[in-house]
Fold:
Amino acid sequence: MAAYNGQKYIADQIESILNQLYPTDELVVSMDFSTDQTEEIVLEYAKKDSRIHLITGPSKGVIKNFENAIAYTQNEIIFLADQDDFWLPGKVERVLKEFEDPDVQVVMHDASIVDENMEVKESSYFAYRHVRLGIKENILKNSYIGCCMAFKSSLKDCVIPFPKKIPMHDQWIGLIGELEGKNVLIPEVYLLYRRHEQNKTDMKHSGIRQMIKWRKDLFQEIEKYKQYKLIKDGKTME
Structure:
């Protein structure tokens, strides 16, 4: 979890996560410097539950904050979590089932989009965003959303450090997962995706010039990764 000025909702999110964790699991919270009570709230939970690991964030934005959290993780499967959503029962168990296939790298489930009062605005994020797999498809129009994603820890060395020019970390993780193996979409809803005035990520489109630049930069980074993968896999370039 990446945390920053999230005192209003973070307690509910932490509880929804802890309710599904096993004794050997961990909740890594990377805490960027906040001006509210977010850190104090997390510290109180950490005193009661040793599975919570609070670490100091780099305070360089949400992408770097998630990179910091991911780098600290120790277990085999990494779930990403925003500070203001709510995990629904059965999420962890259902997602882990997909990783029984050794080729699966990234799993993403559906979510319902809700407002700050948990009133449902869109029952299916997948339907709302026309979510689909595919490298070309997700460079042109991103479907990957971190709060619904989990990935193998073996992917860590492939995705971090995040390239400086990528639009968002979740898009990069999803694309690299497709290059390294296969990704899976779970059509069931296992998260309430809360949208409110303080959200650090935006569902609105950026300006056309910015979108074109992001796609160009992302394409270049993917091409660089493909070259790296050829070398890593011991293959020669054509």
About this structure: The two ends are 41 Å apart (CA to CA). The CA atoms of residues 146 and 170 lie 5 Å apart. The first strand starts at residue 2 and ends at 3. The chain has a mean pLDDT of 94.
